[in-house]
Amino acid sequence: MSRVAIVTGAGKRVGRVLAEGLLADGWTVVAHVRGEVDDVPPGSIRVVADLSADGMAGTIMAACPEPPSLLVNNAARFSPDSLEAFSADELGAHMMVNVAAPALLISAFAEVGAEGDRLVVNILDAKLAAPNPDFLSYTLSKSALATLTTLSAQALGGRGIRVNAIAPALMLLSEGQSDSNFAAMHAFNPLARGVTPEDVLRALRFLVDSPTMTGETLTLDSGQRFWRLPRDVQFLSRTPD
């Protein structure tokens, strides 16, 4: 397995933690960001691309010093909407970044011809295990990405390429969420343990070290799915126990 990895959305939040962890593990990391002024972890190779733009997959692949063996589709669009306030344009924007871009990157990744074990990891959302109607377009797009994970694993297994996913629950303050709500909801689950970006990094390392695992999703939610919450946590108060 070569030691070149691509991480999309590597400039901040969980993507930055993943890129920094891979760098610490000895990987050469191609760190994708969207904006010209966006920072990346020191030591990584910075590549700027709008995931909704034509040719973005080629731009990202061209930044790799050698064929990559790991692709982490982490970047995502996350904007609020609902069935009552549904917009086809908003759904299309989510599907472009959260589904079409990963599909194009997986296709380009499969064609570059690195030898040995190769791995794609798609970052999903734990809410798919117990869905609610909040953030409708986002949820639909992540559901489609989950299906893409399965179909890509089926299509690429014969070429030695594994495709898996990690589905974390709330890790960091979301747009529109209050500090007090985050403090109350972060560990709002049966284990009373909040999920962190470091948990996602540990799951990624596990997938790297599991050469016979493909088509699987690792859900990191401390059992929150068992409660089947009716709404997104930022719209709830802490009442179940």
UniProtKB/TrEMBL annotation:
Domain of life the protein comes from: Bacteria
Keywords (A to Z) from UniProt: Oxidoreductase
Protein name per its UniProtKB record: SDR family oxidoreductase
Lineage: Bacteria, Pseudomonadati, Pseudomonadota, Alphaproteobacteria, Sphingomonadales
Similarity remark: Belongs to the short-chain dehydrogenases/reductases (SDR) family.
Membrane-spanning residues: none
SUPFAM superfamilies, per database record: NAD(P)-binding Rossmann-fold domains
Pfam families linked: adh_short_C2
InterPro entries: NAD(P)-bd_dom_sf (IPR036291), SDR_fam (IPR002347)
